[in-house]
Structures are given as structure tokens and as C-alpha cells.
Amino acid sequence: MPTLKPRSNLWIECGGQVVLSKWRVRLLEAIQETGSINAAAERVGVSYHRAWEKLDEMEKGLGVQLVERQVGGARGGGTRLTATGREYVARFKRFERGFDDVITGHFEQAFGDR
Amino acid sequence: MPTLKPRSNLWIECGGQVVLSKWRVRLLEAIQETGSINAAAERVGVSYHRAWEKLDEMEKGLGVQLVERQVGGARGGGTRLTATGREYVARFKRFERGFDDVITGHFEQAFGDR
Fold first, then answer.
1. How far is B94 from chain A, CA to nearest CA, in Å?
2. A99 in a domain, yes or no?
3. At the N or C end, where does chain B have fewer CB atoms within 10 A?
4. Which residues in chain A have Cβ-Cβ distances shorter than 8 Å to B111?
5. A63, B3: Cβ pair inside 8 Å?
6. Per the domain annotation, does A6 fall within a domain?
7. Is residue A37 part of a domain?
8. pLDDT (tens digit, 9 = 90+) per residue, B40-73?
9. What span, in angstroms and rounded, lies between the C-alpha atoms of A44 and B97?
10. Which chain B residues have a beta carbon less than 8 Å from that of A112?
């Protein structure tokens, strides 16, 4: 009997447009951690152009500013999340928390006796 | 504040290959209801070729026969699900049951006070 695995994806739309998803939120987190859209894009495996495009889509869709450029300072500038950006990351992570367990539970119920 | 909507997708993989998903299961149900792969493909909005391709993928991935041709009879033949095919449809529907409520609940918790 082949081994089956449950898979899922979660995202948030606004007016039919994706504004938050697992990978978009990973991109935002990577910006916060690296201080750079370029490094963040590389970490999540997309081009700089695509990362910018998606950030723009998210900001326009949500009607908020998610990232801001920092000029100068000890680290010589860079990009970081705004307070709103950090808030949306936290909200999405709250949204998806515990889902994997729910999915595993449903899967076991439906396919466990196969 | 723009209106956000939670969205999700669920599927089952085997060896990295999708074997069951919402639309694939809708295709199987449509075959059962219409007695025809052609009519079923049209109902779920894919070409006959793609429907066949996906059926083949699912059967190979799961290592079972999901559909069978019926020859003759009052309705002049056609295609229907095997008992195994009906079983997988039922299992997948059990798997996804209640998910929308879970997602709505998580979404309200995470974004409801926005």
C-alpha cells in the first residue's frame, strides 16, 4: 500500500487577490531577519524582481505599508518591516498555528485504517 | 479596511505526486454522476485529455483502479467508479469535512479584531 501524505496550503485574499500566504509571510520574515529584500528573496528562492512585485501586491491589496527603507546607521541602511508589517506576520502565524495537527488528525480519521 | 477572506487547499500526495485533491475528487464524483469521462471533464472545466491524464496519475500513484468501463446495459455503457474509487472519494470527503469551519475559526481568532 503506497504511503499517503496530507498536504495543505493556506492563504488570505482580498478582492480575489492573494495578500498573505505561507511563502509571502516567509518572505516578510526573511526581510526582517536579513534587513535586505535581496537576501530575503534569495532565502525564499525567488528573484529580487518577483519579491518586489509580491511586496507591492501585498501592500496595495492590504492598503498598508509593510516594509520601509532604513538609511544609514551602524549597519549602513537596509529594509525592515514596519510595525504594521510585523503585525500582519504575527496575525498570519496565529492563523496557521495548529493547522498541521488538525490536518494530521483529519487524515488519520479518514485514511488511517486503509 | 479591506475585507480579507481566508482560503485553503487540501490534497494528498504519494511519493511527491498529487493523488487526491478537491478538484480531482470532484472529477471522480462527476464521473459517477454522469457515467462519462467526457461529461465529467466538461463539468469540472478541464479537457478530456487532461481528465484522462489525471485519472491515470491517480490510479498509478495509488496503485488501484478507480474507474471502469461498462459495456452495454440499459444506458448503453459508459464509465463509472469502481468500489475502490467510491471508497477513495468517501475517504477524501471525510478528510476535508469540517475544515472550512476550522479555517474560519482560526481566521476570526487571528484577524477578527483587525
1. 6
2. yes
3. N
4. 12, 91, 95
5. no
6. no
7. yes
8. 999 999 999 999 999 999 999 999 999 998 877 6
9. 32
10. none
CA B77 to chain A, closest CA, distance in angstroms equals 31
- Across the interface, whether the CB atoms of B8 and A5 are under 8 A apart is answered no
Q: Which domain, by its residues, includes B48?
A: 12-109
Structural domains in chain B (count)? 1
pLDDT at B95 over 80: yes
Which residues neighbour A74 within 8 Å (Cβ) at sequence distance 6 or greater? none
Mean pLDDT in residue range A13-39: 94
Q: Which three cell numbers stand for residue A33?
A: 531577519
The reply to whether ipTM tops 0.90 is no
Under the banding of pLDDT at 50, 70 and 90, the label for residue A44 is: very high
pTM of the full structure: 0.82
Question: What CATH number is attached to the domain comprising A50?
Answer: 1.10.10.10
Percent of chain B with pLDDT over 70: 96
B6/A12 Cβ within 8 A: yes
- The overall average pLDDT reported for chain B is 92
- Return contacts of B75-80, CB within 8 angstroms, 24+ apart: B75/B35, B78/B35, B78/B36, B79/B31, B79/B35, B79/B36, B79/B37, B80/B31, B80/B32, B80/B35
Residue B1 lies in a domain: no
